[in-house]
Amino acid sequence: MIDDAFKLLKEMVYDKGILPNVITYNSLICGLCKLGRWNEASKLLKEMEDEKISPNVKTFTALVDAFCKEGKVEEAEAVINIMIERGEVPNIVTYSSLIDGYCLRGEMIKAREIFDSMTLRCCLFFQR
């Protein structure tokens, strides 16, 4: 099904002249991440940026979640750092994914540190 979405994207761009936006890319990135194809999702993020389309919190959170589900919490933290550098603020979903990632690896102390950090930032109760 995701491959059909990429065919539709090509048709949009090349046949209809419709340029993709952040929502288009988010849909594709989220789809790839749900299928565990995080490497392709990362490449799509690069393509998105090459096209001067700014990723948003949803874009970054999809990648964080995908990396965490694969046990790649270091990569997830790198994505969060890039996110923050670009002015996007991680939300409760972003932090929850990271906490899940650490829990899946049995790193409860690190998961608790992330939770405490999140609550200090008032992320738990006040979302952007």
Automatic annotation (TrEMBL):
Gene3D superfamilies: Tetratricopeptide repeat domain
Renumbered ranges of PPR repeats: 21-55, 56-90, 91-125
Keywords from the UniProt entry: Repeat
Keyword Repeat in annotation: yes
InterPro entries: PPR_rpt (IPR002885), TPR-like_helical_dom_sf (IPR011990)
Protein name per Swiss-Prot or TrEMBL: Tetratricopeptide-like helical domain superfamily
Organism annotation: Helianthus annuus
Origin organism lineage: Eukaryota, Viridiplantae, Streptophyta, Embryophyta, Tracheophyta
